[in-house]
TrEMBL record:
One of its GO terms (biological process) is transsulfuration. It holds the Pfam family Cys_Met_Meta_PP. GO terms for molecular function: carbon-sulfur lyase activity; pyridoxal phosphate binding. This is Cystathionine beta-lyase. Belongs to the trans-sulfuration enzymes family. It comes from Thalassospira xianhensis MCCC 1A02616. Its cofactor is pyridoxal 5'-phosphate. Keywords: Pyridoxal phosphate. InterPro entries: Cys/Met-Metab_PyrdxlP-dep_enz, PyrdxlP-dep_Trfase, PyrdxlP-dep_Trfase_major, PyrdxlP-dep_Trfase_small. The modification N6-(pyridoxal phosphate)lysine is found at K204. One of its GO terms (cellular component) is cytoplasm. The keyword 4Fe-4S does not apply.
């Protein structure tokens, strides 16, 4: 497709190669057979690229990968079975025992656990820095193999100057990897800011309907080719054809959904900022500023209650907001930071980097913001101490 087309057009458009179908079919196949001996030899010799077995290449998954590469403005992309598979595969394709990673604080908690539990055992160390402190990143980076970023960060929603940080990584010979799940390519295209590799939990906004767990890695043809040939075939965390098809369906409305999440998210964040029982709102664009590198905001942010609010009571009093992790779907969700205290199973980034106990995370879905505001108002009223 034409490079000059806007993201909204790219997302709504599907190639109609098959039977003039406006929606591409699902290639629900493990296997693709060869015409003859010569074609098999050409393929195995690497002179011909074609689907052989869906752990490697599947046409439905490939259509999703091409769409993401176009949106992220990278040469190529690779679908994975989850966001964590995208993160672990991208990182494992770079690090070797003895290497060091510099990562920002307040990472997505399972990425943090992967670093702390897996990589440590491989003799890969991770140093965490406050990504807002450019000087601290500059000091930490020499000798590091990877600069690992998430902007905004999980729970605290700190934003970073992605371009400056990626420039620092490049000058030091480190590969920059960023988790772009929060902004989606609609509101941030990190590759255009100098970031080497972009990873997503496609389970969130890219899928958008809470019906798929998937991930994607976007980067140069060389980086993706290396993950495709040295990591994915052996760890095996490949995106399935059906999930790829669901993602193609989700992507058609990504632009419309993101603008709605943005509008409603800002409306609810503004309402909370004015509420007498709320002492802080952590939303990257509250107050009208737009952090560098972002062109918009999604529906996920956090806020802090005054001590007058009984948080468990508040959570239970909500009628529209559902209690749950994940985010990026049509539904509004709440997670109180209090639950991270109770969580078992390895190191917890929220605890390690100190998230206040009065913090609450909201995902603003596609319901009417007036109804969501009324729900929050009645639940706060019902939970005052
Ligand atoms: C959910 C999430 C992930 C992990 O994605 P899965 O698809 O659940 O494996 C990674 N990063 C962020 C920021 C997330 O919210």
């Amino acid at each position: 497709m034409d490079d000059a087309l806007s993201p909204a057009t790219r997302l709504a458009y599907d190639e109609t190669h098959f039977a003039n179908a406006v929606v591409p079919p699902i290639f629900q196949n493990s296997l693709f057979v060869f015409e003859n001996f010569a074609e098999m030899v050409e393929t195995y010799a690497g002179r011909k690229t074609r689907p052989v077995y869906s752990r490697g290449l599947n046409p439905t998954v490939r259509a999703f990968e091409e769409k993401i590469a176009a949106l992220e403005k990278t040469e190529d992309a690779l679908g994975t079975a989850s966001g964590m598979a995208a993160i672990s595969s991208a990182v494992l394709s770079v690090v070797r025992p003895g290497d060091r990673i510099v990562a920002v604080e307040h990472l997505y908690p399972d990425a943090f656990r992967f670093f702390e539990m897996f990589l440590r055992d491989m003799n890969v160390t991770v140093d965490y820095v406050d990504g807002r402190d450019i000087g601290a990143v500059r000091v930490a980076i020499p000798g590091a193999r990877i600069l690992y970023l998430e902007s905004p960060t999980s729970w605290t929603f700190h934003t970073h100057d992605i371009k400056t940080l990626c420039d620092i990584a490049r000058a030091a010979g480190a590969v920059s990897i960023i988790d772009n799940s929060w902004a989606s390519p609609i509101f941030c295209q990190p590759a255009t800011l100098g970031c080497d590799v972009v990873v997503h939990s496609a389970s969130k906004y890219l899928g958008g309907h809470s019906d798929v767990v998937a991930g994607v890695i976007a980067g140069s043809a060389e980086f993706i080719g290396n993950v495709r040939s040295t990591i994915l075939p052996y760890l095996g965390a490949k995106l399935s054809a059906f999930d790829g098809w669901l993602l193609l369906r989700g992507l058609r409305t990504l632009s419309a959904r993101m603008h709605e999440h943005e509008r409603s998210g800002l409306a609810i964040a503004g309402f909370l900022a004015d509420h007498p029982e709320v002492i802080a709102v952590h939303h990257p664009r509250l107050g009208g500023q737009t952090p560098p590198g972002l062109t918009g905001s999604s529906g996920l942010f956090s806020f802090e209650f005054s001590p007058n609010v009984d948080i468990p009571k508040f959570v239970d009093a909500l009628r529209i907001f559902k209690i749950g992790v994940s985010w990026g779907g049509h539904e509004s969700l709440i997670v109180p930071a209090l639950v991270t205290r109770a969580q078992v199973g390895g190191p917890n980034s929220a605890l390690r980097f100190g998230v206040p106990e009065n913090l609450v995370r909201l995902h603003i879905g596609l319901e009417s913001p007036e109804d969501l505001r009324a729900d929050l108002t009645q639940a706060i009223g019902a939970s005052l101490k």
